Sequence to fold (716 residues):
Amino acid sequence: MEIAGIFKYLYEKLASTGLSQAWVDIISYSVAALIVFGFLAVVALFLVWWERKISAHIQQRFGPMRTGWHGWLQTIVDMLKLIQKEDITPATADRPVFYWAPIVAFVAAFMAYVTIPFGAGLIVSDLNIGILYIIAITTFTIISLLMAGWGSNNKYALLGGMRSAAQVVSYEVPMVLAILSVVLFAGSLSMVQIVESQAKIYQWYIFRLPFGPIAFIIYLIAGTAESNRTPFDLPEAEQELVAGFNVEYSGMKFAMFFFAEFVNMFTIAAIGTTLFLGGWQGPWLPSWVWFMLKTLALVFVLMWFRWTFPRLRVDQLMEFSWKFLLPVSFANLIIAGWMKYSKWFNW
Amino acid sequence: MSAPFRTEEFLVNMGPHHPSTHGVCRFLLTMDGEVVVKAVPYIGYLHRALERICENRTYHQCLPVLDRFEYCTSMSCEYAFCLATEKLAGIQAPERAEYLRVIMLELNRIASHLIWYGTTSLDLGAVTPFLYGFREREDILDLFEMTCGQRLTYNYIRIGGVSRDIPPEFIPKLKEFIEKFPRKVDDYEKLLTENPIWIVRNKNVGILSKELALGYGVSGPALRASGVKFDLRRDDPYSLYDRFEFDIPTGTVGDCYDRYLVRMEEMRQSLRIVKQALEQLPAGDIKTKLPPNFKPPKGEVYSRIENSRGEMGIYIQSAGDSKKPLRVKMRGGSYNQLQVMPEIVKGGKIADLVAVMASMDIIMPEVDR
Fold:
């Protein structure tokens, strides 16, 4: 069952009503945005619950069990609680910055989904610079972290925000280089064309030896660092910084940061699926099911990391990025370029 | 040389309420960015005047107080006091009681090391080992609970013996534990020992040299990790420790990683002792009858045992005509380990301070008395 057909049908119905093209675009994009937003809201709620369940089972606990079947209502109830909470702003905070930080984080997290293909034909807008757009947009998250750190007027929050910004910036570089090697092979920045270039399973970029697996691992490590998760969760290092950049936030603003964090994790997994795991393609099942399966598998790996690894020290974190990941990703890019040029392995 | 821009050292107050100070330790840190220039520990937030309280109680009444001296290994604290009193009064506990004591002491050592394992990994950001450690500790606490009804402050070891015999279901449960625990320790090691992140966080961090350790009177696993093979169970045997076979693990460098390895191995060795003690456990009395007005003769005594955090010493002075001790002095390993910390964290990162503190296994009630 392909959902794309339904959307296409609806779009044609709308276009045939005699409205001008501008109105058709406005209406269809608004509806698409709402659908994506609704979908991601559900995904984020699910991921919070899922993470709690996974962590619980890794640690031989049950996790939430009381609200609904195996506690599936837990995050919804938590959200309701957070909405009802008093919205506290510290007296010394820089009010506008403090106020806008969670909103920037929230918006930046959702904007990436404009060019992520959820299935065959299921994409809001197939930009010809799709992946470049995503890299640019997700970097906005740093600004929100800095805003939160600075706006809170709290030592710990500022330290957390600064650490986070430094970390995300330095892991962005190897990540982009890993993505670049894929782009080099696909010959396009468009997400749809990248997916279409890996039609058969042996064409998935993760299986294109030797550069593919290395690029994938670099991407996964950098992605873990980007989404600030263990072993790179220094911005939130409880043992050193108490809670990091969001220490002063409460209620709905905290929930928005929380939401954005999980949406970002899903973004990392979704991009990984699109670039390396053949996107929506797969036999028998509908394309969107394949996309979700692969993405959730990657999310599971990220969660697995989080609940089994210790945390790196801040200088080791930087060293790892600049002294190890960066040279490796450069070398990898050269190998990929050479492979492309020499037409070897060009299946 | 003129600096390109002016930087300032700043003071950070780490504790007494901080997630990684294991209770109420406070460090006043002089920081240069992330680097610790100077660390000064401030203690006393948990001072309860335990020594003074003991002087106002009869010998038997002192034991619950000793439980609270260091609640992770209450058994050893009770035992240290009983040993001192027995030495003073010349009492010999029955053999079965001694065996039960050894079993309890070693199980308690394992439980304490499991807490250390959990909290250390938590301090370095790994959440899961914490729950693994507490899972096996739970089994040990169940054993204690079925024996004496308590899970933390046992009041089990008494002057002249133990308070009650083990119930019939104790031995099968303990055998089951002995059976499965080595596998569990392997699991713990699998999670951390070879983990590259764990290694970079711990290797060559907080190196405690042999001389420094001896100079500050550091004892226990921290001293052994620095390469000094000193264990009171072997070097000054008390109770029945000369009857059991066990190895004393030592480190070479004295860094956090060595301390980690030493403690992991100690858990295995403790289990070995428990196993041997269980095999040799004789039948018989569990308590020597003491006179209702128990008054040890005039004199003084210092006795020491190997606690999970180092040398646990009790000094008692008796006036001879009183049911209460004239003076009680306690010595715990944590105090010395805390005092040596400023020396070894200097020049490290603030995250290293957390690692060193965790690996030293400091517990504040023992420092503050």
Q: What stands out?
A: Chain B has a mean pLDDT of 86. Chain B touches chain A through 27 residues (CB under 8 Å). Residues 48-367 of chain B form a domain with the Cytochrome-c3 Hydrogenase; chain B fold (CATH 1.10.645.10). The radius of gyration of chain B is 21 Å.
